[in-house]
Amino acid sequence: MFPIRDHNPSGRTPYVTYGLIVANIAIFLSYWSLFQQPRALNAFFVDFALIPALVSEGAGLPGFVTSMFLHGGLAHLAGNMLFLFIFGDNIEDEMGHLRFLGFYLACGLLAGVTHYAMAPFSPVPTVGASGAIAGVMGGYLLLFPKARIDILIILVIIFKVLPVPAWIMLAVWFALQLFGGFGSGPGEAGVAYWAHAGGFIAGMALTVPLWLKRGGPAFWNRTHGHPPHPEARYVRGRTHVPRAGGRRKRGSGPWSRR
């Protein structure tokens, strides 16, 4: 189950979302050659990733920020940027450009703090933007719980695109992070589940003031949990490849990914 797009068009160009995507890709390309040199890559991550054990020793604090712009591979980068592209523009539309940037960075920092709190002596370098992006997803869930998300379901050789309400997709995703967090040992290499969960909760909490400003429960009553504007619709052409109609969007080593 993998989200590929939403039906929630934004009302303005999401410059910050696009800028974050470009920044993450550019930074990844800047150290791409190190993937052919494992020792150099690990040394690079020691300098710029988040390493809880170093933080516990009083060092490595910049890693809380720098780790948000590093990725452990192409698939890691592509998955994170897809999630940011799907959910980021709508939150930026609601918050405004500068507030969204502050929100994104705050969610990333709180995700890192959560990861550190759950494994303060882990020597495993942690990299990835998904803690911050999880915060964006938490904000999206609070503001647009019934916005439709198209998910790609792959069952062996069957590929199916299915629209589901955002709350189902995001609730399942969050539950998987909790399951993974409780099911894995502290500091294990792999996926930083607690960073995801912490970022998601932080995103919801930091979005509460905006939600209340919109009317809180009254906002949900007015919109019925849907986007407060007409949804984007998709049609299928002769090639059966979905295309947008009337949509305003344009659109390997011992480290943990988030």
TrEMBL record:
Region (Disordered): 222-258
Domain of life (superkingdom): Bacteria
Keyword Hydrolase (UniProt): yes
GO biological processes: proteolysis
Skewed-composition ranges (Basic residues): 235-258
Keyword Transport: no
Sorted UniProt keywords: Hydrolase, Membrane, Protease, Transmembrane, Transmembrane helix
Compartment(s) of residence: Membrane
GO cellular component: membrane
Topological type in the membrane: Multi-pass membrane protein
Gene3D superfamilies, per database record: Rhomboid-like (1.20.1540.10)
Molecular function terms from GO: serine-type endopeptidase activity
InterPro entries: Peptidase_S54_rhomboid_dom, Rhomboid-like_sf, Rhomboid_protease_S54
Lineage, highest ranks first: Bacteria, Pseudomonadati, Pseudomonadota, Alphaproteobacteria, Rhodobacterales
Primary subcellular site in the record, as a coarse category: membrane
Membrane-crossing segments per the record: 15-34, 41-62, 68-88, 100-118, 124-144, 151-179, 191-212
Domain (Peptidase S54 rhomboid) ranges: 64-210
Descriptive protein name: Rhomboid family serine protease
